[in-house]
UniProtKB/TrEMBL annotation:
Role of this protein: Forms membrane-associated dynamic filaments that are essential for cell shape determination. Acts by regulating cell wall synthesis and cell elongation, and thus cell shape. A feedback loop between cell geometry and MreB localization may maintain elongated cell shape by targeting cell wall growth to regions of negative cell wall curvature.
Coiled-coil regions listed in the entry: none
Protein name per Swiss-Prot or TrEMBL: Cell shape-determining protein MreB
Superkingdom as given in the UniProt entry: Bacteria
InterPro entries per record: ATPase_NBD, MreB, MreB_MamK-like
Presence of the UniProt keyword Cytoplasm in the record: yes
Keywords tagged on the record: ATP-binding, Cell shape, Cytoplasm, Nucleotide-binding
GO MF, any single term: ATP binding
GO BP terms, alphabetized: cell morphogenesis; regulation of cell shape
Subcellular location: Cytoplasm
Organism per entry: Candidatus Roizmanbacteria bacterium RIFCSPHIGHO2_02_FULL_43_11
Length: 334
């Protein structure tokens, strides 16, 4: 029996991951909550709730309580954090030290909302770590050195671009709407090009299966069968969509992420810029798994880019290392 547990949570727009000190990553579920409209009673959280997206009757709402990386629905987020803590900590714990990741540009109001939600959910002490720093720690970048490292943490709600030196963010920009904007672009393209309406779950599946940020023109293309509803007749419809069509649909939101990277590079002091040219750009986050995203950024910035190992787990690994070694990461923690 342990009286005090150390826990880290990566509360993302698309996925929530939980790390328990001494155990490792114990939970990875979608950040989705299903609740009753009448009394706001929570009916399902995580995987079970994601199955309900777009499939609920009028009395039940299945929704993502975080929008663009920030708490959009306070009480629902609180209930969700409480659920994830109970599910992760098996047995009894008197006190829970909780490390939670927040977007780098979070305001004091947004940070207070996160701390308050976590304390109401059962945490004793709450520490905040900025996502780009957590991602860099998790990607095993030596952030405490006096040299420039660039990380692009592409999640569901935000793409966070940061240059880190001596354990602090030197330059930072948050691009709102990363993975979710790619899904929306695919939904829009399906409606415009094929007259087919699809839901966000289907769009996400298409992105994960044949999404390609930077298509090689000489390569044979994959195609995927997409099922949806015909916009004109309202009847079910099946179409085959090519990898090139999906790639073209995603170019606008990808360009927004690229502009964010270029803006940060333009603001970076020259000494740190030369370090970044030597070391390259590190890509992390769930959307960092998008095929050829590294090639896309390399091509348009002229700086080598590479995807971190297991990009989805970078932030949670970094937050976990920080809660286990609080003294070592004091500079990075708020």
């Amino acid at each position: 029996m342990m009286w005090r547990r150390k826990v880290a949570i990566d509360l993302g727009t698309a996925n929530t991951l939980v790390y328990v000190a001494g155990v490792g990553i114990v939970l990875n579920e979608p950040t989705v909550v299903a609740y009753s409209i009448e009394n706001k009673q929570i009916l399902a959280v995580g995987d079970d709730a994601r199955q309900m997206l777009g499939r609920t009757p009028g009395t039940i709402i299945a929704a993502r309580p975080l929008k663009d990386g920030v708490i959009a629905d306070y009480s629902i987020t609180e209930a969700m954090v409480s659920y994830f803590l109970k599910k992760s900590i098996k047995g009894f714990a008197m006190k829970v030290d909780l490390m939670i990741s927040v977007p780098g540009g979070s305001t004091q109001v947004e940070k207070r909302a996160v701390v308050s939600a976590c304390k109401n959910a059962g945490a004793t002490d709450v520490y905040l770590i900025e996502e780009p720093l957590a991602a860099a720690i998790g990607a095993r970048i030596p952030i405490s050195q006096a040299s420039g490292h660039m990380i692009v943490n592409v999640g569901g709600g935000t793409a966070e671009v940061a240059v880190i030196s001596m354990g602090q963010l030197v330059e930072y920009k948050s691009v709102r709407g990363a993975g979710t904007k790619l899904d929306e672009a695919i939904m829009h393209h399906m409606r415009k090009a094929y007259n087919v309406i699809i839901g966000e779950r289907t769009a996400e599946d298409v992105k994960m299966k044949i999404g390609n940020a930077f298509l090689d023109s000489a390569k044979d293309e994959d195609t995927i069968e997409v099922k949806g509803r015909d916009f004109q007749t309202g009847l079910p419809k099946v179409v085959h969509v090519s990898e090139r069509a999906v790639s073209e649909a995603m170019q606008k939101p990808l360009k927004t992420i690229l502009e964010g990277v270029k803006d940060v590079l333009a603001q970076t002091p020259p000494e740190l810029s030369s370090d970044i040219v030597d070391r390259g750009i590190v890509i992390s986050g769930g959307t960092g798994q998008l095929k050829n995203l590294d090639a896309y950024l390399s091509h348009y910035t002229g700086v080598a880019a590479f995807t971190a190992e297991e990009p989805l787990f970078c932030v949670i690994r970094g937050a976990g290392m920080a809660i286990e070694n609080l003294d070592s990461y004091k500079e990075a923690i708020r």
